[in-house]
Amino acid sequence: MKTKIRTELAKLWQIAWPVLIGQLATVGMSVADVAMAGHFSAGDLAAVALGASLWSIILVTVMGVMISINAIVSHEVGAGAFNKIPHIMRQSMWMAFGIGVIACLLLNLSTEVFDYLQLEASVQQKATEFVRVISIGMPAFAMYRALYSYTTSLNETKPVMVIAIVGLIFNVLVNYLFIYGKFGLPQLGSTGCALATGVAMWLMLGAMLWWVHHAPVYQQTFPFTHREMPKWSEIRSMLRIGLPIGVTYFAEVSAFCAVGLLVARFGVIAISANQIALNFSSLIFMIPMSLGIALTTRVSQTLGEGNVIHARFVSWTGVGISLVIAVVSASLMTIFRHQVAAAYTSDPAVQEVAANLLLLAAIFQLSDAAQVTLSCALRGYKVTRVPMFIHIMAFYGFALPIGIALGLAPDWMPWHPVKPMEASGFWIGLVLGLTVAAILLGIFLHRLSSTRIAYHLSRVE
């Protein structure tokens, strides 16, 4: 059994480690935006925090929809049906372009929410400009994620890593030029962050297209041999898998971002501290997220081979190693939370609040790691609707109501603390919501995998 576990972990890690570096580099763009804006001014940091709340909701929802391509293509890889993959990818690129345009429009419309948050006029203007400028990258991001899923499904994750690192370097350099107005360029502050990230998305799409066109490994499944018009019936079948994943991502990220928007009423210090904690925990989250992407690939490939028993083994092996890593990351986050806060901002008041929130972020590392890898294992089974409902219930039935009760202490709620706990109250709600999601997803995966095995054995007999 130990040899079997080591073999599977090696296969997961072979896929996961370049994905991890790529994911860290991609999230590093947001980290760079927050850190560099934070050292420019507290107002620009608040604008990036608010703008990134909206941007993250749309961005991650799009990413969730496009993850469906990973499960679909990986299944064909496992079945050895490589001839079907080019057609799937041509249709997925049409789907990605449409989703990217819609996301761009929704992102611009979403800035209306700032009118209801009682923000300082200068912060609201900067946050609106941030969102409108960064939205130019949405179509490119959607198409990039389609190709990202394609190459990951083929176990080719090097381009994901290299291209994301190049994008991060580009983002940091352009941030430096436009935030601070170097070499005679305009000093744009938070808007410079948005410009750098939006352009970086197009650069990454171009780099991925170039890589797929020139690397020999893609010749057998190269999707761009000829033009093909979109076929709604096939795009709709992809959306049946992808939209529930997108809604799942939306439920989770919107809950976190809603916290950021609700915390805005407590002032710039609370906004900035909350964004630091969210930004850093999102960075750490990339570790289980990368394992989850590898897990979707491995489970889909194994099911494509028709091996349902090994698919269950792969699923729980991935969840187990994710929990082990979460224990380590939670410990380190607890020990170094003050140093992390200081790395983001030089404001002592923001540092103190951020360090307290990072302690709560450390607590939910276990449940967060569990729920993301469990969800990804279920995607490998092409089951996405039940996880969607679980996440909606966990975040909107538990996390946000509890967070509002503790954070705002409104009189109309049946119970609440004497004084609002502000940001800390909201983060306690998030801890509870993630725990509920992890427990329910674990129960569902156990029942689903057992049912599949029982059905397979009954047919063999």
Indicate the low-confidence ranges by residue numbers: none
End-to-end Cα distance: 26 Å
What does the largest sheet look like? none
Helix and strand run: HHHHHHHHHHHHHHH
Alpha-beta classification: mainly alpha
Radius of gyration: 22 Å
Lay out the secondary structure.
Layout (H helix, E strand, L loop, with lengths): L1 H37 L3 H38 L5 H25 L11 H14 L3 H16 L4 H22 L10 H25 L17 H32 L4 H37 L3 H28 L1 H8 L3 H16 L1 H16 L4 H23 L15 H38 L1
Helix pairs in contact: 1-2, 1-6, 1-7, 1-9, 1-10, 2-3, 2-4, 2-5, 2-7, 2-8, 2-9, 3-5, 4-7, 5-7, 6-7, 8-9, 8-14, 8-15, 9-10, 9-12, 9-13, 10-12, 10-13, 10-15, 11-12, 12-15, 13-15, 14-15
Structure description:
It comes from Undibacterium amnicola. It is found in: Cell inner membrane. Keywords: Antiport, Cell membrane, Ion transport, Membrane, Transmembrane, Transmembrane helix, Transport. It is a multi-pass membrane protein. InterPro entries: MATE_fam (IPR002528), MATE_MdtK (IPR050222), MdtK-like (IPR048279). The protein has 461 residues and is mostly helical. The protein has one domain. It is 81% helix and 0% strand. Helix 1 packs antiparallel against helix 7, helix 4 packs parallel to helix 7 and helix 13 packs parallel to helix 15. The longest helix has 38 residues. It is globular and about 65 Å long. The mean pLDDT is 87.
